[in-house]
Amino acid sequence: MARRLEDARILMYSHDTFGLGHLRRCRAIAHALVEDYRGLSILIVSGATIAGAFDYRARVDFVKIPSVIKLRNGEYTSMASHIDLQETLKMRESIIRHTAETFQPDVFIVDKEPMGLKGEVEDTLAYLKAQGATLVLGLREIMDAPHLLDAEWKKNGIMQKIDQYYDSIWVYGPPDFYDPLVGLDVPVSVRRKMDFVGFLQRSVSTSKTSINARNDNYILVTTGGGGDGADLVEDVMNAYEHDASLQQRALVVLGPYMPAAERAKLVQKGAKIPYVEVIEFDNHMEELVAGAVGVVAMGGYNTYCEILSFDKPALIVPRIKPREEQLLRAQRASELGLVDVLLPEQSADPAVMAAALKRLPQRLPPSQSGCTLQLDGLNHISQTVGHWLDSRGRHLSIVSAE
Question: How far apart are CA 326 and CA 338, in angstroms?
């Protein structure tokens, strides 16, 4: 059963400067909410260059803001090289504010960056707070190494601003997995706003089928957006070249943000390995994870949720800079027996990688680790939002599912 709302609106913000993580997380939440509530409309403001490559359910749409990309050294630059970064940020800020004024949301959900990229949503937060909207900050269960996050937030006075603007802070993980603000000086007033909602469970769409879906026993090699994934893919291919007895079929997804030169090199290299198939991108990754006998990944948040949701044996080779988020997640998940982990220098040894790839399909899935997995984040969020909207006078009534 779904519930009907009278013209309720939610605005989401996803800055997306590097990879697909933020947009895919926002989209998963949006789809779950419109499925549960008829009459709810959701608009996602996104800077992802390929926001339009994904399909969106009815009553979920997106507004594309000019793209800014994050370089490997952590600095930013405009996607359009002829436009100055400051001009691009000014345009983005203006579009976000204008969208909020026109759309008039009941709830505004900001993904990961409390004030947006370079502070671009602060003006909109102030405006919507004055309008009485409910303001939510959504944080990954792991943000970064505490000393790095603390320095970044202190420089911009972020903790005080979170306290000033936000009504609630959703942590997209269970409390016993990790605390994203561990090691930071968190005021009691901010702690009180934190709600550990659980991991965001994923499912395979019933309406769409991946053109890359297959039925053989394959391992899936995925690097998310792929912007920094070439090393992992090369390590896997080197393992196949090194060990002729490695005959496990592998489907490699490079990701849409992999630089062209690296992409071309890996496509060429993969074509010479009989057990490896290389594709560039698939907008139904859930289906490819669900069909695999095991997953090799860098362990970003979304891939990790998919590994848990579809209960897949996994080998994680985390990125360790400029952020330590993937490393921390991999270490914690390994402690709990959920995944196997190789550090980048281990992964680069073809013999070590080949042995790990051979072990992978026989590894126990996460559900057999003895660790209780809380994969109820979307349900928790849906209940919370329903309660808020009901209390705002958005009438809720039960209707049969369409």
Answer: 14
Q: pTM of this prediction? A: 0.92
Please state, in angstroms and rounded to a whole number, the distance separating the CA atoms of residues 316 and 239. Answer: 15
- The residue assigned the tokens 């903790």 is 159
State both tokens at 335.
């402690």
What are the backbone angles phi and psi of residue 174, rounded to the nearest 5°? -80, 155
Whole-angstrom distance, CA of residue 17 vs CA of residue 62: 16
**140 forms bridges with which residues in the sheet?**
172
Q: pLDDT, tens digit, for every residue of 224-277?
A: 888 889 999 999 999 999 999 999 999 999 998 899 999 999 999 999 999 999
Structure token digits, residue 221: 């090699």
Structure-block tokens of residue 349: 């040894």
Beta bridge partners of 252: 221, 278
CA count, 13 A, side-chain hemisphere, 218 = 23
Containing 316, the helix (H) or strand (E) segment is: strand 314-316
Instruction: Kindly state the DSSP code that residue 172 receives in the 8-state scheme.
Output: E
User: Dihedral of CA 239/344/352/282: which sign?
Assistant: negative
CB contact set of 142 (below 8 Å; sequence gap of 6+): 173, 178, 180, 301, 325, 328, 329, 332
Contacts of 368 (CB under 8 A, 6+ apart): none
The model's pLDDT over 289-341, given as tens digits with 9 standing for 90+, comes to: 999 999 999 999 999 999 999 999 999 999 998 889 999 999 999 999 999 99
d(CA 282, CA 222): 10
Dihedrals phi, psi of 62, to nearest 5 degrees? -135, 150
Kindly list the distances between the CA atom of residue 398 and the CA atoms of 4, 39, 80, 383, 401, in Å, as whole numbers in the listed order.
6, 12, 47, 14, 9
CB atoms inside a 10 Å sphere around CB 273: 18
How far apart are the C-alpha atoms of 161 and 119, rounded to whole Å?
11
Query: Residue 71: what are its φ and ψ, rounded to 5°?
Result: -80, 165
Q: Which amino acid is at 325?
A: E
Q: Is 353 exposed, middle or buried (0-12, 13-18, 19+ CB in 10 A)?
A: buried
Report the alpha-carbon distance of residue 384 to residue 361 in Å, rounded. Answer: 38
Asked if 12 contacts 48 with a C-beta cutoff of 8 angstroms, the reply is: no
